[in-house]
Design goal:
- Helices cover about 40% and strands about 15% of the residues.
- The protein is of the alpha/beta class.
- The strands form 4 sheets. Strands 3-2-1-4-5-7-11 form a 7-stranded parallel beta sheet, sandwiched between helices. A two-stranded parallel ribbon has the order 6-13.
């Protein structure tokens, strides 16, 4: 199978590309700077600067993971627009590729697995969240809603669409742990605010496996929560992380400090959702790392 990946040079995309290559698939990667990302990707990846550059070698499947880091910069109006445009723009490129293939009479991909995030639901307090839970209206929801909506036109062309609403991705060398580990290793880590907010998380290996699962399972479409079946509160997360590192977790960061330093972006740390992967589990997907202690033990 020929699989086209946007965001292939990112933390999740790199591992996905490696896994696809190992499984014998051809991998196409869209990157604005192909020469800069070549060293990050497995040999054999065909890297080009736009989705349309692959019109002569149509992919059998699409995986859409591109997007500016949501936690990279404070959320100014300009940065909010950048966050939306980076996701919507990459998604529209893939839709445009399919439109061009259809106009040329070429075969269309069978499926697109398109990224979204737990932010789709907004702050949900302590209620259990499945794919059917109504969202709380706020910026994170609007960002994800527009991202998902940009992918919808592909269904009218007969391409199966699966949306993955991704939790915090855990693995060594990047993702959510990269910024969290240094203070915890120094023994100065602690909960954020009250610590009662939920943190849906997923080991990177399980996320990659879930994406491949959704590519392969021809009857699966719609939204899927891509997070481990046992989410935890921030307080539990910090205690479990500190325990794995054999360090204390006795230095909480007050909510007012985060709000003062990060502004609206502090909601990423102070709010959450008890998000469960109901549809993935119903479809028969099995998590290799269902609990946080097992995931952190494997990583650390």
């Amino acid at each position: 199978m020929r699989v086209l990946v946007t965001g292939g040079s990112g933390f999740v995309g790199q591992r996905l590309c490696q896994q696809l290559i190992e499984q014998g698939h051809e991998v196409q990667v869209v990157s604005r700077r192909p020469h800069h990302v070549r060293d990050r990707l497995p040999s054999g990846c065909d890297i080009r600067d736009s989705a349309q550059a692959f019109v002569e070698s149509p992919p059998d499947a699409l995986v859409n993971l591109a997007g500016e880091s949501i936690a990279g910069k404070r959320w100014s109006d300009e940065q909010k627009a950048t966050l939306i445009d980076s996701r919507v723009g990459a998604t529209q490129q893939l839709v445009a590729l399919c439109e061009q293939l259809k106009a040329n009479g070429q075969p269309l991909p069978g499926v697109m697995v398109s990224g979204s995030a737990m932010g789709y639901y907004g702050d949900q307090g302590k209620r259990v969240v499945t794919e059917e839970t109504p969202p709380n209206e706020e910026f994170a929801h609007r960002l994800c809603q527009q991202w998902e909506a940009a992918a919808q036109p592909i269904e009218a062309m007969g391409v199966r669409l699966a949306i993955v609403r991704i939790g915090l991705v855990l693995e060594a060398g990047g993702g959510s742990l990269q910024k969290m580990l240094p203070p915890f290793k120094m023994g100065v880590g602690g909960r954020f605010g009250s610590g009662e907010q939920f943190m849906p998380w997923i080991h990177r290996e399980d996320l990659v496996a879930a994406i491949v699962f959704l590519i392969d399972q021809e009857k699966l479409s719609g939204a899927f929560n891509a997070s481990a079946p046992h989410p935890v509160t921030n307080a539990t997360f910090t205690k479990t992380l500190a325990k794995q590192l054999n360090r204390p977790a006795i230095f909480p960061v007050p909510a007012f400090v985060l709000k003062a330093g990060l502004g609206e972006m502090s909601r990423l740390l102070l709010t959450g959702a008890d998000m469960r992967p109901a549809r993935l589990e119903e479809a028969g997907f099995t998590f290799q790392y269902p609990t946080l202690d097992k995931a952190l033990k494997a990583i650390l």
